[in-house]
Amino acid sequence: MTLRCKDGDIAVITWDYPECLENIGRLVQVRGPVTNDPDGQPSWLIKTVTSELYSFRERDGSIAQEHLDWCSRIEHPDAWMLPISPEQEPDGVADAQQTPNHLANGEPQHEQP
Question: First-to-last CA distance in the chain?
Answer without folding.
Answer: 35
